[in-house]
């Protein structure tokens, strides 16, 4: 069987293009010999385009992207652009317009990876971060800006529809994992309206998944456990903002954001899902070939998995694991890391 | 000179009364011989009262409390009470009504304290968490509750008045510390209206404090640095919710919430400030004399400092440091820890 996929590539800003190049290289190696073809269309979006044209994501481009099977994204954001313009106008617009309601962020401590924790134990959990609601909806505003009477608001919007679908997805993922454990993270003792909607929804949907053990943590307590007992987590389901915060911390304890992959998934497949490293555009090291492309490469693995090619995805994970185990602390360029992983994918026989 | 202070004591729920007892014991020892007297009024507020009367914080009680010089609080919240009722109705009501706009949370890694970090370095920073605005205002609601069409909102309210006063307080604190560094933590690339108000305010107020170095971190990145390089922080100023999250993580890396003290401060002294451990009511270990009262004791130290008795506060800190250095991992009861620290305060000559 051969399959041809159309891939929209948004390399973006800063280190985005550098790490995306390596992810595409690895994807090509996997594709070869497995009957997969990825037809790529590169979209020039991000700081350069905004400076040149004032555009972040024109409607016509969004519609073109929508026609693809999947999206590979590098990173978005640049200090030369006012904070929020590209994040809201490009990255979040893609997530919202394409209804990426499952923002999937696995955290696994690979053997040999340096972690800031003295006694990390086994870390292997996945955060299912809601991707289309919460404080990220962009439903805020301000009056009397720049005066002593300025008032600025941010509204967190949460719907039964939106919470239930992501909670159900998280339960299904928990059900499919050996430990079958789901932790809801929120702040339902303060954000009572949103929090109680989440708690009630987890309780209700949980009835359909009697095998899954459920617990609840306030977001502040969850950060404590991520530092002191990360092994307690299996699947975390949480709101958009809490998920943002927890997954950076989760990345930090599992070797850093250089390794953290993510998928912005539309499980209903009504639009293409988008895969990107958790890290940002890192303008301080952009163009120096210093960025670790591993997170971008692992994100390409998540993309393969989403498209139904679990064995091919596993080849990437195995190659990354092997590469990490062989790391000796010597600095390597972005290309060198990408090539080393591509080489392993090409030559190593996958363990089934 | 002798000074008499009136102290409102809200021991609260769970381990609250146990740890508060020890804090009061230590406070009494400090008071003896230093010419200080603390007249105490205990307020029976929390789960018991709510079950008995349905009251969280009656207006008349609030007015009585308002007449005191300071408040010592244990912990609030119990699983037998719907989540949010006591937190919003009692704890947050006190913080808001008494205009505790500076929620002060120092984080210091004392020698000998176990930390989950492999290489913590020197940790000594203070979080100035805004206490009267942001997503904590209770300005949310819900429609069609319990139906598939439920919509729940939470509104973060931020005013120039509210942000400026806490930012100015944080700058003054940074100015008074050796490193003179202030880090604003927010999420101004997503919560653009609130975030830009914070960023502009820090820039404007910063002009009055030319000696203070300023930087900015997104909240997600801040959690990474707390895990990988906590020594980079000196003073953090941040919003109410981000401060809640960061200070639990900060507590985790500096020995746990058993050691983390806090002050809900009204710097204008138009109402009494309130001092409490960062930890919650920990119902799972309540009544078992297992709780560590150190955080409550250190909070009494912050209370002394706020009332202008820095030398007496220092006696508490020194006694706690000495007690911690002598800990050998053997479990001690809440009383034993309290007595050991009280004993040290009574006998050790303070290093000036
Ligand atoms: C760049 C930013 C808008 C984004 C987010 O907040 O979601 C990033 O932090 C992430 O986690 O993907
Ligand atoms: C109990 C809760 C309302 C409170 C808060 O969120 O502020 C607590 O977590 C804290 O940090 O003091």
Automatic annotation (TrEMBL), chains A, B:
Its cofactor is Mn(2+); Mg(2+). It catalyses: (2R,3S)-3-isopropylmalate + NAD(+) = 4-methyl-2-oxopentanoate + CO2 + NADH. It is an enzyme of class 1 (oxidoreductase). GO terms for biological process: L-leucine biosynthetic process. Pathway: Amino-acid biosynthesis; L-leucine biosynthesis; L-leucine from 3-methyl-2-oxobutanoate: step 3/4. Transmembrane segments: none annotated. Gene3D superfamilies: Isopropylmalate Dehydrogenase. NAD(+) binds at residues 280-292. Its main location: cytoplasm. Residues 6-341 form the Isopropylmalate dehydrogenase-like domain. Its EC number is 1.1.1.85. GO terms for cellular component: cytoplasm. It is found in: Cytoplasm. Homodimer. Catalyzes the oxidation of 3-carboxy-2-hydroxy-4-methylpentanoate (3-isopropylmalate) to 3-carboxy-4-methyl-2-oxopentanoate. The product decarboxylates to 4-methyl-2 oxopentanoate. Belongs to the isocitrate and isopropylmalate dehydrogenases family. LeuB type 2 subfamily. NCBIfam families: PRK03437.1 (NF002898). This is 3-isopropylmalate dehydrogenase.
């Amino acid at each position: 069987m051969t399959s041809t996929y159309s891939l929209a590539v948004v390399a973006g800003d800063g280190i985005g293009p550098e790490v995306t190049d390596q992810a595409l290289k690895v994807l090509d190696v996997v594709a070869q010999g497995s009957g997969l073809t990825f037809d790529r269309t590169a979209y020039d979006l991000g700081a350069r385009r905004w400076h040149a044209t004032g555009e972040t994501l024109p409607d016509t481009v969004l519609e073109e992207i929508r026609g693809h099977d999947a999206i590979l994204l590098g990173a978005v954001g640049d200090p030369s652009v006012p904070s929020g313009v590209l994040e809201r106008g490009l990255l979040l617009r893609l997530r919202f317009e394409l209804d990426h309601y499952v923002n999937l962020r696995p955290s696994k401590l690979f053997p040999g990876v340096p972690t800031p924790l003295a006694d990390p134990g086994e870390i292997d959990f996945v955060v299912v971060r809601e991707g289309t609601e919460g404080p990220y909806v962009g439903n805020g505003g301000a009056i009397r800006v720049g005066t002593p009477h300025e008032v600025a608001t941010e509204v967190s919007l949460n719907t039964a529809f939106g919470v239930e679908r992501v909670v159900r997805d998280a339960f299904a993922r928990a059900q499919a994992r050996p430990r079958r454990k789901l932790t809801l993270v929120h702040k339902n003792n303060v954000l009572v309206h949103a929090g109680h909607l989440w708690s009630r929804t987890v309780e209700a949907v949980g009835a359909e998944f009697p095998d899954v053990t459920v617990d609840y943590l306030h977001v502040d307590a969850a950060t404590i456990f991520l530092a002191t007992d990360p092994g307690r987590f299996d699947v975390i389901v949480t709101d958009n903002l809490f998920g943002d915060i927890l997954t950076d911390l989760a990345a930090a304890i599992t070797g850093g954001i250089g390794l953290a992959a993510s998928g912005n998934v539309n499980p209903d497949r009504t639009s293409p899902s988008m895969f990107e490293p958790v890290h940002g555009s890192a303008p301080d090291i952009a163009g120096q070939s210093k960025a670790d492309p591993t997170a971008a490469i692992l994100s390409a693995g998540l993309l393969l998995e989403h498209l139904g090619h679990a064995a091919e995805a596993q080849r990437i994970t195995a190659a990354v694991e092997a590469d990490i185990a062989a790391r000796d602390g010597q600095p390597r360029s972005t290309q060198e890391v990408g090539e080393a992983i591509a080489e392993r994918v090409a030559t190593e026989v996958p363990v089934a």
